[in-house]
Amino acid sequence: MGDELTTVEAGHYNGFPAHQDQSKAANGAPRWLGLAPPQIFETLRSLGKYGPDRTVTVANHPRSSSTGYFSQFGFDQGTGVLCSDNFITLGNPIVRSSFFGPVKKENFCIDCFVAMEAVNGKRLEQIRTPTIEEVPPVAPGQTEPLPPPTLYRVLERTADEQRRLLTSGDLLALDDSGSNQGGVDDFFAVLNLGASPTALANSDSHGCSDSGKGASWVELGSDLPGAIDEIDVAKTVASGRVALGFGPLVRFRIGDARIGDTITRTDGIVDLDIDVQGPDWFQIDRVEIYANGELIAERSVPRPNPTTYKFRDRVTVDVRDAAVNDRRARDTYFVVVALGDDDLFPVNFPTVEPSGDPLSDAFSSIVPSLFLSNGLPRTFNIPPYALTNPIFVDVDGDGRFTAPGRPPANGRFKLAQCEGASRSEDCACKSLELPPDDLLGGALAVKDFVQWQLALDQIHGRQGASPPATIESRKFP
Fold first, then answer.
1. pTM above 0.90?
2. In 272-325, where does DSSP find H-type helix?
3. Which domain holds residue 66?
4. Cis peptide before 377 (omega within 30 of 0)
């Protein structure tokens, strides 16, 4: 059992396993009014059935307008800047120091939650940040947008798109508030900044038709529901052993390291053994490999796919390669994505409903243009799409993973209203400088929120040309 905590002013969150106290109002659910997100996460942890340090806290749909944590604070995934220009937040004392004042950086943190929702079944247009080619254009004199793109086109990231992302500042199509920044891209951003949440997919079910639209596959020791304890689910989610998405199941290893592990490879040579499983009633046609959030390899998958293993292959990557790490041998995390230009109907129906965000629905009924996502529709046919959580590779041999840091702003989208002033108190934006002590520890004592116990296992012998590796797994105490 968990607690779904929905605020009107500071986002939407989950905590589990939670203790239920039937002697109290609302079974002991916490009062959230006036609490900043770090306090909300700490409050959810205090309700933990097995103690605060064994409680999974989740940031739900962080881009969902007034109930989106990242949207409220204007977190920019490309620049690491907080800049909320949403008029809903102007008078919000949680977000701003004063009306029209700067964003309260001290009320925002990126590693005070154990997991984050990267895929939400009700907000398919918020899985990946779209490019300008993926948003229906409006020609001069045209009053109606052209037919919308398929969701597959938005989810797919090609090598040409990745190259242009690194060289052009205007490839990504963002609305004025940045609310259509994708959840998967948000996940990459917080990993690059040094946090390590587990990515989750959720259906956000409010009815029978929603079930299964976005699922998290948690790696446990048994397939029998009666043999699984809730604390085992929590531990496994915290360790990062989760795959997520719609349809296919993606898994990969680097040597003996599994999803969620950290492994040492000082020679920089990494073999990714990938397999994608699924039934015969849908097809995949593409596998993408990401290093530190950037696409570095892609594989075409012939159709029709085999019944069980749709893709099985070993992909070798040298992290010293210029295409991966700008000629620098640095620590690298890997994520694998599988997708197909197919339709999961009738198992998954397109979602046709209001956003579920009362403030957005109310305001958009009055001024619709304020809440449009740059022409992207809300309803898509659902294609097969799945991704993994990372395997982290320690390349420099210091025994830990060091995040690559904030990406260069010139390779990402720009914040025109704060250009040249993102570090100024006169601007509503605040840069998340590295190391951001008040975001990754320090004043918020975030490291006390989740006490990871590192279990170090030494792999003896060599695997091919690779040196002996150390695998490190995140665990609850």
1. no
2. 322-325
3. 3-473
4. no
Q: Tens digit of pLDDT for each residue in 202-251? A: 877 766 666 778 899 999 988 888 888 999 999 999 999 999 999 999 99
Q: State how far the Cα of 71 lies from the Cα of 65, in Å rounded to an integer.
A: 6
Our count of domains for the chain comes to 1
CA nearest neighbour of 185 among 65, 296, 338, 77: 77
Question: If DSSP codes are grouped into helix, strand and coil, which group holds residue 392?
Answer: strand
| Residue entry with tokens 């006169």 | 426
Q: Which residues contact 177 (CB under 8 A, 6 or more apart)?
A: 71, 74, 84, 85, 86
Contacts of 274 (CB under 8 A, 6+ apart): 250, 251, 252, 287, 289, 311, 312, 313, 314, 315, 336
- Whole-angstrom CA distances from 276 to 190, 246, 292, 293, 301 are 26, 12, 21, 20, 10
Contact at 8 Å (CB) between 154 and 128? yes
**Contact between residue 319 and residue 395 where contact means Cβ atoms under 8 Å apart:** yes
CB 158 within 8 A of CB 402: no
Burial letters 396-409, b for 16+ CB under 10 A, else e: eeeeebebbebbeb
Question: How, if at all, do strands 391-394 and 261-264 pair?
Answer: parallel
Pairing between strand 81-82 and 75-76?
antiparallel
Cα–Cα dist 204/28, whole Å: 23
Burial class (CB in 10 A: 0-12, 13-18, 19+), 477: exposed
Residue 466 is given by DSSP the state: B
Task: Pick left, alpha or beta for residue 130 (phi over 0 → left; psi -120 to 50 → alpha; otherwise beta).
Answer: beta
- Going from the C-alpha of 131 to that of each of 173, 374, 455, the distances in angstroms are 5, 11, 41
Residue 86: name the closest of 409, 395, 427, 371 by CA: 371
* Residue pLDDT, tens place only, 48-83: 999 999 999 999 999 887 778 898 888 888 777 787
Contacts of residue 343, defined as CB under 8 A and 6 or more positions apart, other chains included, come to 282, 381, 382, 383
The phi, psi pair for 25, rounded to 5°, reads -60, 140
